[in-house]
Design brief:
The chain is mainly α. It has 6 helices and no strands.
């Protein structure tokens, strides 16, 4: 079976259309992620650190945002940014496996060659519980 991280074909995960069906607009999500960046920066200046669940929401929303942008803009640098944005989420989920809400863990063979479909799985599940 051929797998395509861009379309989601061949992965046991929601397609981009399903995963992002009820997502806020890209513009709204950019604003939300930037607000989270600002909050995280202020917390770091005061010596506070976010709980893993708060970190996870940030990394999930950032990765999903960049995935959505890459779905519209097929340039190599945009796709690379979307792929790279999955790494912090995957690392956090490996460290805190109880935060994973979808059926497949980030280390599943299901995600070879990309974790972008993993982000879609987790984003769709997060939106259902949000």
């Amino acid at each position: 079976m051929i797998t395509d991280p861009q379309t989601g074909e061949g992965f046991d995960a929601p397609t981009p259309a399903v995963a992002y069906a009820n997502a806020p607009s890209i513009t709204s999500e950019i604003s939300a992620v930037l607000a989270m960046v600002s909050k995280r920066s202020a917390e770091r200046r005061t010596g506070l650190s976010a709980a893993p669940v708060d970190d996870r929401e940030f990394w999930l929303r950032k990765a999903a945002l960049l995935d959505r942008i890459a779905l519209e803009d097929h340039r190599a640098d945009t796709i690379t940014a979307a792929v790279e944005a999955t790494a912090p989420l995957v690392a956090l989920d490996r460290e805190h496996p109880g935060l994973v809400v979808g059926p497949h863990h980030p280390d599943s063979i299901e995600w070879d060659p990309s974790h972008r479909p993993y982000v879609r799985q987790e984003y769709a599940a997060w939106r259902q519980h949000d």
